[in-house]
Design goal:
The complex is a heterodimer of chains A (398) and B (622).
Chain A (H helix, E strand, L loop, with lengths): L4 H5 L9 H6 L6 H21 L10 H22 L3 H5 L1 H18 L1 E3 L2 E6 L4 E2 L1 H19 L6 H20 L4 H17 L4 H25 L6 H9 L10 H14 L25 H34 L3 H25 L17 H25 L6
Antiparallel strand pairs in A: 1-2, 2-3
Chain B lengths: L8 H36 L1 H12 E6 L6 E2 L5 E13 L8 H14 L4 H14 L5 E7 L1 H9 L7 E10 L7 H4 L2 E3 L2 H4 L12 E3 L2 H5 L1 H4 L4 E7 L5 E10 L6 E4 L3 H14 L3 E7 L5 E7 L13 H8 L9 H4 L9 H10 L9 E3 L2 E4 L2 E4 L7 E3 L1 H7 L2 H10 L5 H8 L21 H10 L8 H8 L9 H13 L2 E2 L5 E5 L5 E4 L6 E2 L4 H16 L6 H4 L7 E9 L2 E11 L6 E7 L9 H13 L16
Helix pairs in contact in B: 3-4, 10-22, 13-16, 14-20, 15-18
Classes of the chains: A mainly alpha (398), B alpha+beta (622).
């Protein structure tokens, strides 16, 4: 019944609007948001085209072709979701949550191991990484739980319940092991709770606990001989604090990325780029794609990309304020914060001010799961935006 | 149903506005951080990182330049290069697993006859200097080893054979002491200005003209700068700079191969340590210069075996010593030319002055006798030289014992002084003088002060005198050419690859001395008669030589060793072009060993052979 709402709204009052946009449900889209997302995806394709020409022997457009396909599917998905009333997801929260946890858990059984870590299902055309889509699913489900449980139990009980709901899938992802994505899960959980009205004092306690946990994991546990993190994980997390200490090992990637970005100077080196072209910077199509942009297109290009992200996140935060209901507020807030978190951690990692955590840069990094999930998240934002517009126009579906 | 009353926005609106504002502020702060960091990296520190990136991606390889050839005066090749194979290891391509890496190096070391420790040390030393560059484990390996390695490449990843240039000596040991050898530049040498642009491992001349004329022979190494990827592998089309090596220029020596070979063969035939030098009296060009025992310079192109080390460095006859320029010997009667010159020029005698040779001369209770107990009666200078009367020259020595004239003339003619030759020259010798001995006496290093006996000894080239064939040749040349003290040299000109002369070496004379033509004529006549008139000291050897010469024998007493044989000859008489000095340690009388060797040299120079036989009166030895 909810799905028909947009269609019901279609024929009646606003004759002035172009009928075709109306029919496609695009009339009340946030065009700035959509265009900034598409622009980022396009810039990603543009960058990959130039930077990965020789990466796969015999097929110069390996990455480009796939990224274009993922982007196209993602845009279609975004447009479809725009027309879906996001409030439906609140109803489906238990199903979504179950699917989320099950898909991540199944990875341990059927997953495809890459570089010592099981993160994806190997499908015929595509290796699907459930934890990428999981970021969105967690936000949708958790926001539903928060709204649903708003009146149940004491504040403290609620806070603990939400934390447990959010941290369960985060823990599963952490065990894959995929530290970066589990951190995004954690950030999304906290964001939903934050916009769900969890007390500031509780956040203060959570913050204190986090600091204690980090100290325990990075300092105490190795000291007493039961390390929680794998050696390389701990090294990556701490090496950004002393990058020049050992440029051959843990700090090497980051140091090379720094050289790449710095050498781009104001206008970039274009095809004369060497750091990212000659393999000095690893993972140049995924985690370190920002270094490619920095080296090839210089400050101008990198600042342009950052500006697009700033625009994207501003529009997302704006949708938080526009949402017609609390569920929309929570979902939009969760998406906005998780995007902000990913962008800051990834770019910060490229710029040497954040640890290496393996978080992709949304829409820029090569990878179907990430691109698709991000476009779908933006589709949900569009849906919230559209529903808000429709309700402002007095077009309540109910 | 799903729209509960609490799900209406106004209910959480108060707190929400603040919360959104906080997140907005946080986002602003985070983006500001990223922008400032980006600005810092790319705009403020950009040039620094750009330099680092360029340094990252380039590797430089030096391409060794072949050394220039060394030719004799007629263009005959004395030293050229052959290509040889050097066994190299590319550290980038060795197995990354330490155990497999060690195993491969151990296998390789066994094939190259190197211990694992040697292999490790060699690699460590070279990688310290040029990290990432191929390490040369061993030079000049055989083709069989290289073929074996190529056939088993899978077992020896990272091992390669590099063609390098190695010195080649078509004449074997010919002129070894003149040529010197080539070896890796030492750490001490790298600190010297002349080796400023070299790197460890570069080859430089280590002796002889290879050392003196190194800067002409060395050439300039080529430089290839290539772009590499993160693994250090060259990238396609990544050759950034390629400067081809500039081969060294050729050095043409004044050495005449036939003269050189004749001298060396004559010494070798005698089999005793000795030396010879043949020089152009007018300009100091050395036509031949050799020392026996000699060495094979090609041995230094490969690592020496222990047997070679023993025979070269631990040999009591020290084959590396160039006795022609570094020997320290008394000269025997060959010194009489200098005594005669000093006595004539200082007015002690005239060419006609006669002295009675009664067979001996007694000074202060010490009796000096003629060699062999002969007595020649009344003599003037020319017959005194012809028969090499010791008493005649003892008398001259006695008359000049406290005037210093003999020392003055010997000094002016170059005895006991650096000659300025373009070969390593360590020993300058000793010219005994009153000042020298009195100073020693004052210090208590000798038992008596200068006495007439010392000068009498010096007048016949005995006693404390220490000189070498080269200095004596210069003294003879000075008298023969009328007073020009030439600068001896073996380097004649530098030619480029096309044979064009780039530079000629004509070192100016050291100094001039006044040689009265009358005195010169008298002395040369005496020497000529000594060599080629019956009764002359070396008539037995030179009597039948078709070219008129002027030569003087010498027999230096070196107790407890047997006498040392000397012969110095100027040819052709009366206007000599060349001087040849030969000395043979323990060779006995001058006419026995040194004179026949000198004859061989002159035969080679004039391309003429001795006809007829020496007269019956072989003349008295002297």
């Amino acid at each position: 019944m909810y799905a028909t709402r947009a269609r019901q709204a279609r024929p009646e009052p606003f004759v002035a609007r172009p009928a075709i946009a109306e029919r496609l449900g695009l009339a009340y889209m946030d065009w700035t948001l959509a265009l900034s997302a598409v622009a980022l995806a396009a810039f990603s394709v543009f960058t990959l085209d130039q930077a990965t020409l020789h990466d796969v022997p015999g097929s110069p457009h390996y990455y480009v072709d796939r990224q274009v396909l993922y982007g196209a599917v993602g845009i279609v998905g975004m447009l479809l979701l725009t027309r879906v009333d996001y409030s439906r997801f609140r109803e489906l929260r238990v199903g979504i949550y179950t699917f989320l946890c099950a898909s991540i858990a199944l990875i341990f059984v059927f997953g495809f191991a890459a570089r010592g870590s099981r993160r994806a299902f190997e499908l015929p055309f595509f290796s699907f990484q459930p934890s990428e889509l999981g970021k969105l699913l967690l936000i949708l489900a958790l926001a539903g739980f928060v709204i649903d449980g708003a009146r149940r139990g004491s504040d403290r009980q609620r806070t603990v319940r939400y934390l447990c709901l959010g941290l369960a899938p985060a823990a599963l992802v952490f065990l894959q092991p995929d530290l970066g994505t589990s951190l995004v899960f954690g950030a999304a959980t906290l964001a939903v709770m934050y916009f769900g009205g969890v007390r500031w004092t509780h956040f203060a306690v959570i913050g204190g606990a986090l600091v204690a946990l980090v100290t325990l994991v990075l300092v105490v546990a190795p000291a007493v001989g039961t390390p929680v993190l794998k050696g390389y994980q701990a090294q990556r997390l701490t090496s950004f604090l002393h990058p020049s200490q050992d440029p051959r090992n843990a700090g090497y990637q980051q140091h090379q990325a720094l050289i790449a970005i710095g050498s781009g100077e104001k206008t970039g080196r274009g095809d004369r780029a060497t750091q990212t072209r000659l393999d000095f910077v690893p993972e140049r199509s995924t985690d370190f794609i920002f270094a490619v942009i920095g080296e090839r297109y210089g400050f101008l290009g990198a600042a342009f990309v950052l500006s697009l992200y700033a625009l994207l996140i501003w529009r997302a935060l704006r949708i938080v304020t526009l949402s017609k209901n609390s569920y929309g507020t929570l979902v939009a807030g969760g998406i906005a914060v998780s995007l902000l978190f990913q962008v800051f951690v990834n770019v910060g990692m490229n710029l040497g001010i954040m640890p290496i955590t393996g978080i992709p840069l949304p829409l820029m990094s090569y990878g179907g799961s990430s691109v698709l999930a991000t476009f779908l998240a933006i589709g949900v934002l569009q849906s919230i935006h559209m529903q808000a517009r429709l309700s402002q126009k007095g077009r309540f579906a109910w | 149903m799903y729209l509960r009353s609490d799900d209406r926005r106004p209910q959480i609106r108060n707190g929400l506005a603040l919360r959104i504002a906080v997140v907005g502020g946080l986002a602003l702060a985070l983006f500001a951080m990223l922008f400032f960091r980006l600005w810092d990296l790319q705009v403020l520190s950009g040039p620094k990182y750009l330099a680092e990136a360029n340094n990252n991606r380039t590797r430089e390889f030096r391409v060794i330049a072949p050394r220039g050839y060394i030719l004799d005066r007629n263009g005959k090749v004395l030293v050229d290069n052959r290509t040889s194979l050097a066994l190299q290891v590319n550290p980038q391509k060795l197995p990354s697993l330490p155990s497999r890496r060690q195993a491969e190096l151990a296998r390789l070391g066994a094939l190259a006859h190197m211990s694992p420790r040697q292999v490790r040390r060699t690699m460590h030393e070279q990688l310290k200097v040029a990290a990432g560059a191929p390490v040369t484990l061993r030079r000049d390996v055989g083709y069989d080893l290289v073929y074996y390695l190529q056939e088993n490449q899978d077992r020896f990843p990272g091992v390669q054979a590099q063609r390098v240039f190695v010195r080649h000596y078509p004449g074997g040991s010919l002129a070894a002491h003149v040529l010197g050898s080539v070896g890796e530049v030492s750490e001490e040498q790298l600190k010297e200005a002349r080796y400023r642009n070299l790197q460890p491992g570069d080859q430089v001349g280590q002796g002889g003209v290879e050392h003196t004329y190194d800067r002409f022979l060395r050439g300039q190494p080529g430089l290839t700068r290539i772009q590499v990827n993160a693994l250090g592998q060259p990238t396609p089309g990544g050759q950034l700079v390629s400067k081809p090596p500039v081969p060294g220029n050729s050095l043409k020596l004044s050495i005449d191969s036939s003269v050189q070979a004749a001298g060396e063969q004559a010494l070798a035939a005698r089999g005793l340590p000795g030396a010879f030098v043949t020089m152009d009296v007018s300009n100091g060009q050395i036509l031949g210069l050799g020392s026996f025992p000699t060495f094979d310079p090609s041995e230094f192109t490969k690592p020496l075996t222990q047997a070679q080390v023993n025979s070269i460095y631990h040999n009591p006859l020290s084959p590396l010593t160039n006795r022609a320029t570094e020997g320290l010997y008394p000269t025997g009667s060959t010194f009489k030319l200098i005594t005669a010159m000093a006595a004539l020029s200082s007015g002690v005698i005239t060419p006609e002055t006669t002295i009675v040779d009664g067979g001996s001369l007694t000074i202060g209770g010490q009796t000096f006798k003629n060699s062999g107990g002969a007595s020649y009666g009344t003599l003037s200078l020319v017959p005194a030289l012809q028969v090499s009367s010791d008493v005649f020259f003892y008398t001259l020595g006695l008359r000049m014992w406290n005037t210093g004239a003999l020392q003055h003339w010997a000094h002016m003619l170059g005895i006991g002084r650096p000659t300025g030759i373009d070969l390593p020259e360590q020993a300058v010798g000793l010219l005994p003088s009153r000042q020298w001995r009195d100073r020693l006496y004052r210090r208590g290093e000798t038992e008596r002060p200068w006495s007439a006996g010392d000068n009498v000894q010096l007048a016949t080239g005995q006693g404390d005198l220490q000189t070498n064939p080269l200095q004596m040749a210069i003294a003879y040349a000075t008298v023969a050419n009328g007073g020009t003290v030439v600068t001896p040299h073996v380097g004649m000109e530098v030619d480029d690859a096309a044979g064009r002369v780039l530079k000629e070496f004509e070192p100016p004379p050291r100094r001039h001395v006044h040689v009265d033509p009358t005195y010169r004529a008298a002395i040369l006549k005496g020497l000529h008669e000594a060599a080629q008139t019956p009764g002359g000291t070396s008539y037995a050897v030179f009597g039948g030589f078709p070219v008129p010469v002027a030569g003087k024998t010498g027999t230096a007493q070196r107790p407890p060793n047997p006498d040392q044989s000397w012969y110095i000859v100027l040819a052709p008489y009366p206007n000599p072009r060349i001087v040849t000095a030969v000395t043979i340690e323990q060779g006995g009388f001058g006419v026995e060993s040194a004179a026949p060797a000198a004859l061989k040299i002159l035969e080679a120079y004039f391309n003429k052979h001795t006809t007829g036989t020496a007269g019956p009166n072989g003349g008295s030895p002297g």
